[in-house]
Structure to design on (286 residues):
């Protein structure tokens, strides 16, 4: 895959306010790009706003939204989208992504709920994504989400996801942990799911930890270390699609920066390994 079409390169980390002070003491030199939730930083001024501006001037930044509720029944918050557009421009944000789910109906529910896997829902969601793209003047990336029930299901998750991406003509934020979580909870083959994804639409990858509630129930939490089967799935993604920019998510139980960097280093090592393998392949066939 041609690396030029990706908005960022290398390994990223989600920037949380709790990290700001520890990062001042221990700069994370291995991090190539940062991701923020725009809702947490829009309109922030004072000392924190100054620190944020320093980050946006020094590093490539991408935005991962929390509140768009693309599958929700309420009208799109177009006033928010106009503010977001200004924020993206002001900070030279490289990419904006959101969850393929919904989180509001007359007020925020503070949880990501599954959109029914139906043809009607495909058309509804794709229409809303197109409207978002029109307002922002750019393509957005939708993230495959973890879900724990599939109400009104008429098609498989992969069919629904691909149909939305195609009809909306948007990009994909590929979350490998969510694929693993769903593969356990809904008993499907994670590698087969990966194979059916459209490579040309992938903007970047998320990887994170989760919690195991029972043998057949895994919950996506972003509050623990990444486990070996999820690292293996990232490897499979690189094997299939080539090296894609990858971001480590950690939302709580955040360890010291030095510990967090060990997982960032694992991603760097995997990327280097697959880049080398790709170079060897080109040399053999050159």
């Amino acid at each position: 895959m041609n690396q030029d079409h990706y908005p960022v390169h290398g390994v990223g980390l989600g920037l949380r306010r709790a990290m700001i002070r520890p990062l001042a003491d221990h700069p994370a030199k291995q991090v190539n790009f940062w991701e923020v939730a725009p809702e947490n930083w829009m309109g922030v001024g004072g000392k924190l706003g100054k620190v944020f501006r320093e980050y946006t001037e020094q590093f490539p930044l991408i935005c991962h939204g929390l509140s768009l509720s693309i599958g929700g029944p309420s009208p799109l918050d177009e006033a928010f989208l106009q503010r977001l557009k200004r924020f993206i421009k002001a900070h030279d944000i490289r990419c904006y992504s959101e969850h393929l789910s919904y989180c509001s109906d007359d007020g925020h529910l503070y949880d990501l709920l599954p959109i029914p896997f139906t043809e009607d829902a495909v058309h509804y969601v794709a229409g809303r994504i197109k409207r978002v793209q029109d307002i922002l003047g750019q393509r957005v990336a939708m993230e495959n989400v973890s879900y724990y029930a599939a109400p009104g299901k008429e098609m498989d998750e992969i069919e629904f996801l691909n149909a939305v991406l195609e009809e909306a003509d948007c990009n994909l934020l590929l979350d490998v942990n969510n694929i693993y979580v769903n593969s356990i909870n809904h008993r499907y083959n994670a590698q087969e799911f990966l194979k059916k994804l459209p490579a040309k639409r992938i903007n970047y990858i998320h990887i994170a930890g989760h919690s195991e509630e029972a043998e057949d129930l895994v919950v996506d939490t972003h509050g623990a270390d990444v486990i070996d089967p999820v690292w293996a799935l990232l490897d499979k993604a690189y094997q299939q699609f080539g090296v894609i920019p990858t971001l480590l998510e950690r939302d709580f139980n955040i360890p010291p920066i030095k510990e967090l960097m060990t997982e960032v280093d694992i991603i760097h090592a995997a990327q280097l390994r697959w880049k080398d393998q790709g170079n060897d392949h080109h040399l053999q066939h050159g």
Remarks:
- The longest strand covers residues 108-113.
- The radius of gyration is 19 Å.
- The chain has one domain: 3-285.
